[in-house]
Amino acid sequence: MYHYLFLLCLIFVNADQECDVIDYAQWSPNPRNERPPLSKPVNLVIVQHTATETCSDDESCKVILIAVRQNHIEKLKFTDIGNSFYIGGNGMVYEGAGWNIGAHTRGFNDKSIGVSFIGDFRDTPPPNAALKAVQDFLSCSVKNENLDENYILVGHGQLSPTISPGVKLQEVIETWEHWRDNLL
Question: Residue 92 has what DSSP assignment?
């Protein structure tokens, strides 16, 4: 009996593990500054890119994420890393702000998640492993009721004057089922 209760507790504690998300504490040497949680299910996904080097293995992705966090805190004066989740070229999803309010898109931080692909995708699209990982993550997030089944997906440049998520990534997301050309 106790064995089953223990397993059930593990399932609830590690709900994001089901979506193959690498927990923030697994990649960052510093504790995250906690933020208020988003109201769930979230109905807006904003896709971005980090405009950094790409990464193809766990160690290089972690190095880039640590630098992104440091840039967000020191240069941009955010309270912590801005995006909710980061997608590595290795096909892994890394927790940033998670299902808490982030700092990724002015006017939308408290009602959306920011999903940022690690790399610069103005001239080339992300690797197939990264594209599959984000689609699997979004599907799993719907199943876990963190994301509304009728969520809307847009590129960051549709809401803010920026080059993000990059032309080639924008072209890809415009073929996805939940993409919309506007929020109306």
Answer: -
Peptide bond into 37 cis (omega under 30): no
Phi first, then psi: what are they for 175, rounded to 5°? -95, -5
d(CA 104, CA 114) in angstroms, rounded, equals 6
Q: What is the pLDDT of residues 94-113, one digit of tens each?
A: 999 999 999 999 999 999 99
Cα–Cα dist 181/176, whole Å? 11
Q: What is the pLDDT of residues 136-180, one digit of tens each?
A: 999 999 999 999 999 999 999 999 999 999 999 999 999 999 999
Cα–Cα distance between 117 and 177 in angstroms, integer? 19
Tokens for 93, please give them. Answer: 């999803």
Judge contact between 47 and 165, C-beta under 8 A. yes
Q: What is the dihedral of CA 59, 64, 66, 71, to 10 degrees?
A: 170
Tokens of 89: 């070229």
Provide the CA 130 distance to its chain's centre, in angstroms. 11
d(CA 121, CA 165): 7
Contact 156, 48 (CB under 8 A): yes
Task: Give tens-digit pLDDT for 115-135.
Answer: 999 999 999 999 999 999 999
